[in-house]
Amino acid sequence: MILVVPSLIITLMYFMFQNAPVPPGGTPPFNNACLILLGLLPLVVMFLITSISMQRERVSGTLERILTTPLRRLDLLAAYGTAFSIAAAAQATVACVVAFWLLGFDTAGSPIWVFAIAIINAVLGVGLGLLCSAFARTEFQAVQFMPVVIVPQLLLSGIIVPRALLPEWLQWISNVLPASYALEALQQVGKYPDLTATTVRDIAVVVGCAVLALCLAAATLRRRTP
Amino acid sequence: MLNHIDSDFFKLPLPRAIGHRGSAGTHPENTLESFRAAAATGAPYVEFDVHMTRDGEIVVAHDDHLARMCGIERTIPEMTHAEVAELLGCSRRQVGYLPQDPTIYNDLRIIDNVRYFAALYGTGTQAADAAVDAVGLRDHRTALCGNLSGGQRTRVSLACALVCHPDLLVLDEPTVGLDPVLRVDLWEQFHALARQGTTLIVSSHVMDEADHCGDLLLMREGHLLAHTTPAKLREDTGCTSLEEAFLSIIRHSTATAAG
């Protein structure tokens, strides 16, 4: 499921845009949509998977039990982070291969960067998911963090309305949400063949947010002794 | 009257007792005597030795007061091994914890569950195999935990605790709600562990469980009411059932406090 679903969604998008007219001199609408999906889908999927599985660990008592072992909580977070990131990497690989090779998707920049941004977004999703799981009492609540945490980020990141056209106060909110930077980085890679300074800055911001989320998540795993 | 148990109360003596495992600590009668003497003077009771026999020992604390007994204002499920281990002065690596409810992964096989905890303790797959054998699940080792009965799940959970070869095993109501055959079976295993030198701390409000233990710490609302043995408790109170004996001690202590 984790591996195939994003590719299927991208394929679905391909057929949706099949008959859509290409604006003269512009990029085909499929390219724009596909780029966004490739980059942001890992964020959404990994957020959901992590928050629910971590929530299950907390409720079932296994987390408590794991914390009674010599394992350090940073080990635990790193293990969670890498396990889900590997899953995310596999998912992004399949999605990128399908999009670039089979569906004729193309970016001005290197596909490697699209792939890299997808992975970083996935790690951000893992961090946010681990963090949010601390605030959910049930799996039902964990799922509801999705519209609370992820959807506003996506809406304000400029998917529907470009960020420049948002009212100023919404732009301010958008400026502090990591998904805005993730999307901007993706669009930069789509437009320019070389890595731009903006892209590098954006990627750094997203990585920083991911690390911050992981650190905050670590703080939610309380234990008296290190 | 007894003072509220503070952290120093247990912090001091228990590590010493653990450290001297194998050599006997204070004799229980002496402990009880000094306890009574301290209680009579109304002085804060600070000296407390747990009697340690060569065979290891079993102690009972009442319900979730083990946490407070260790000076932590939280209940056992919230108290981590690390905390118990730190308080008792042994390494976290040597403390096993059996939660009240079996906490295992339902979507893993038995052997994978135990191997997972073996990996967390750093004891390896051989220890996992031995632990599965020890709880009598060798024939089911590849069964999915989601399909097991309640008793089997408890045993898997126990195997996950045994896999670290614990010096100290903390058990939270280990046999409550299980069928009689399994209960006998588990207690035999616990006694075997105690004979091998593992110290078991059983936290329970079921007196049937208390009766299996070598040493009793009767606690109520964070206060230690008595440190005794099942036989001694019966003798002192003149009751045949431990349940009544415990109740009589509570009544006695509240009457003393009121008077």
Description:
The complex is a heterodimer of chains A (226) and B (259). With 226 residues, chain A is mainly alpha-helical. Helices cover 74% and strands 0% of the residues of chain A. Chain A contains 9 helices and no strands. Chain A has helices spanning 5-16, 29-60, 62-67, 73-102, 111-133, 139-156, 168-175, 178-191, 197-220. Chain B is of the alpha/beta class and 259 residues long. Mean pLDDT of chain B is 65; it is low at 1-85. At the A-B interface, helix 3 of A face helix 5 and helix 6 of B.
SS element count, helices of chain B: 12
The oligomeric state is heterodimer
- Computed over alpha carbons, the radius of gyration of chain B is 19 Å
C-alpha end-to-end distance of chain B? 10 Å
Q: Biggest β-sheet of chain A: count, sense, barrel?
A: none
| Estimated share of beta-strand residues of chain B | 5-15%
Helix proportion range of chain B: 40-55%
Shape of chain A: globular
How many H/I helical runs of chain A?
Answer: 9
- pLDDT < 50 runs, ≥5 residues of chain B: 1-85
Count of individual beta strands of chain B: 6
| Greatest chain-chain contact | A-B, 14 and 24 residues
Structural class by secondary-structure content of chain B: alpha/beta
Q: Cα distance, first to last residue of chain A?
A: 37 Å
User: What is the SS-derived class of chain A?
Assistant: mainly alpha
Number of domains of chain A: 1
Strand content of chain A: under 5%
Main β-sheet, spatial strand arrangement of chain B? 2-3-4-1-5-6
Question: Largest sheet of chain B, if any?
Answer: 6 strands, mixed
Shape of chain B: elongated
